[in-house]
């Protein structure tokens, strides 16, 4: 038994002695890429945000909180949008005050059911491209109902917003529902409205093709005296697959932050040669009064 222990110790020492520190070893560097984000819809301004990615340089020490660094805007890019027929092409200028590339809805006509192509190039970066087909089916909601379920243990009012999305058959469809609670305050001159609380839910017609898709948004707001001042709006969006997949991956990434047992998730991107998302949607708005009637 003693000889066996000695033998194991000798073997372990031999293994350890084979491990040496590597000095001045540089890992391959990762070049920054263009990051693009744009969501287009008919009759609204076209906004395109362009940044450069910030890859981690493993050859340099990380100082401060790396993840708190603000994205670096790319202000000298050429941003071009065109339709599939090549009958409508526009170069979108950078607006310093907004920090993004913007044109008004009168400058370019986004049409339901049409496909659009976005290209972005800038000195020092590879050109990136993406395409989106605008949905041609505006969302229809039925049986929309808002119920209050009393106070939570924290003194908030629990609210259930429910209803159904009417789906169009024979093709994949994707939807997003945004619920906004608007509040108001008087600044001494005017009454100002602002978004006090909002939620977002994503739906697909998988398993509901051509049927009504039930939805239920469960949330809480401050006590009754404050709740009575709320104006509630429900925004229903028909979205393309890129919009749906990007926001779905965003939700998965947020779940990963809160759940130590969740698997890591990469953000979806449809930007060829870069990162980000170029997507489209159609929207319908339903306004409910402050008591949900």
Produce a short descriptive summary.
The protein has 293 residues and is mostly beta strands. It is 13% helix and 43% strand.
Structural commentary:
The chain is mainly beta and 293 residues long. Among the domains are: 34-58 and 67-133, Immunoglobulin-like (Sandwich), CATH 2.60.40; 140-238 and 283-288, Immunoglobulins (Immunoglobulin-like, Sandwich), CATH 2.60.40. It has helices spanning 2-17, 224-227, 241-258; strands at 34-40, 46-52, 72-73, 78-83, 89-92, 94-95, 100-103, 115-121, 128-133, 140-151, 157-166, 174-186, 191-204, 212-221, 231-239, 275-288.
Summarize the topology.
Blueprint: H1 2-17, E1 34-40, E2 46-52, E3 72-73, E4 78-83, E5 89-92, E6 94-95, E7 100-103, E8 115-121, E9 128-133, E10 140-151, E11 157-166, E12 174-186, E13 191-204, E14 212-221, H2 224-227, E15 231-239, H3 241-258, E16 275-288
Parallel strand pairs: 1-16
Antiparallel strand pairs: 1-2, 2-3, 2-7, 4-5, 4-8, 6-7, 8-9, 10-11, 11-14, 12-13, 12-15, 15-16
